[in-house]
Specification:
The structure is a single chain. Helix content is 48%, strand content 12%. The protein is an alpha/beta fold. It folds into 2 domains: 179 residues, NAD(P)-binding Rossmann-like Domain (Rossmann fold), CATH 3.40.50.720; 126 residues, N-(1-d-carboxylethyl)-l-norvaline Dehydrogenase, domain 2, CATH 1.10.1040. The strands form 2 sheets. It has a 6-stranded parallel sheet with strand order 3-2-1-4-5-6, with helices on both faces. Strand 1, helix 1 and strand 2 form a beta-alpha-beta unit. Helix 1 packs parallel to helix 7 and helix 9 crosses helix 12. The radius of gyration is 20 Å and the shape is elongated. Bound molecules: nicotinamide-adenine-dinucleotide (NAD). It is an enzyme of class 1 (oxidoreductase).
Length: 316
């Protein structure tokens, strides 16, 4: 049993913390939403009065927060521990830190883990400002994966800290991959999700063209799923109802993976592309299409629901 401080009990963090409790760990929790803390306390966690209190005495400190600015504030406190430049995601305040920075409150041997999806630059800056081993460990698998304990963790940071953290992450997920040094987990996440967006839009375009050509969804699926067009967006998450019975297309595009979260991740990929000079024209086009989809009412829809916009106006 390990002592774990967990901060950020939203859609993802709450079920992740519950899985740590189920695995027999001693978990102290904090969130700005008191009701989220109460719900976890009822499940057996210790309620902390501030994020720093959750970290005190912990062997592992885990955060699951919305964006880079929250991660910066929660880990470094309002003083920022003398950190240097601020990535564009890191600007502004927008949240209350809930007390002193987590990094200062955690004991010197505690393993520090941020599971939020944030920009690579802020992840690296926070890890450097903390000044001791810290892991960026974003996830894929969504709320269902968080509840089922089947998340994939992609982890950046020192190998020894990764080795210590691996069993804790394994209590919340099925796959844990060490991707490299600080920021490598976030880098893997934005690259993977940019690829996913591009493949989903490509799959949607193929179905829209098939419809115009009088080719049935099932016929395209039967051919492409067994030939060179095969991809996850087609065979696991098919954007038209029928061929894959449990895909969101079969439930009026209820998420799943919300289009708004895909747009967030695409924005992070384009921030990284700008900062590194990488050419990602399809990533940029995908972000523009998802922004249009959100503006046109796609906010509450699964990201595969973008097929409706492509079908109606060709995405132009
Ligand atoms: P959420 O908005 O439901 O939860 C975030 C929680 O953080 C909220 O409960 C909020 O009160 C809390 N919080 C914010 N600032 C805080 C502070 N200063 N101190 C303490 N608590 C604070 O978000 P979510 O859906 O749980 O997502 C969390 C992260 O996981 C995001 O970075 C998101 O991109 C990523 N992610 C989400 C999904 C998904 O399907 N929801 C999938 C993969 C990754």
């Amino acid at each position: 049993m390990a002592r774990i401080g967990f901060v950020g009990l939203g859609n993802m963090g709450a079920p992740m913390a519950r899985n740590l409790l189920k695995a027999g760990h001693d978990v102290a929790v904090f969130d700005l939403q008191a009701s989220a803390v109460v719900a976890l306390a009822e499940a057996g966690a210790r309620a902390a009065a501030a994020s720093a209190d959750a970290a005190a005495g912990a062997d592992f400190v885990v955060t699951m927060l919305p964006a880079g600015r929250h991660v910066r504030e929660v880990w470094l406190g309002s003083g920022g521990m003398g950190s240097g430049g601020v990535g564009s995601e890191g600007m502004g305040s927008g949240s209350k830190g809930g007390g002193a920075g987590l990094a200062a409150a955690a004991g010197p041997d505690a393993v520090l883990i941020d599971c939020s999806t944030i920009d690579v630059a802020t992840a690296r800056e926070v890890a450097a400002a903390v000044g001791r081993p810290m892991l960026d460990a974003p996830v894929s698998g969504g709320v269902m994966g968080a509840e089922a304990g089947t998340l994939t963790f992609m982890v950046g940071g020192p190998a020894d800290a990764f080795g210590r953290a691996e069993p804790i992450l394994a209590a919340m997920g099925r796959t844990v991959v060490h991707c490299g040094e600080a920021g490598a987990g976030q880098a893997a996440k934005v690259c993977n999700n940019m690829l996913l967006a591009i493949s989903m839009i490509g799959t949607c375009e193929a179905f829209v063209l098939a419809e115009r050509l009088g080719l049935s969804h099932q016929a395209l699926f039967d051919v492409a799923s067994r030939s060179s067009g095969q991809c996850w967006s087609l065979t696991t998450y098919c954007p038209v109802p029928g061929p894959v019975p449990n895909s969101p297309a079969n439930r009026d595009y209820r998420p799943g993976f919300a289009a708004a979260l895909m747009a967030k991740d695409l924005g992070l990929s384009q921030q990284a592309a700008r900062e590194t000079g990488a050419g990602t024209p399809l990533g940029a086009a995908s972000l523009a299409l998802y922004e249009r989809f959100l503006a046109a009412g796609g906010e509450g829809k699964d990201f595969s629901g973008i097929i409706a916009m492509l079908r109606e106006d060709g995405g132009t």
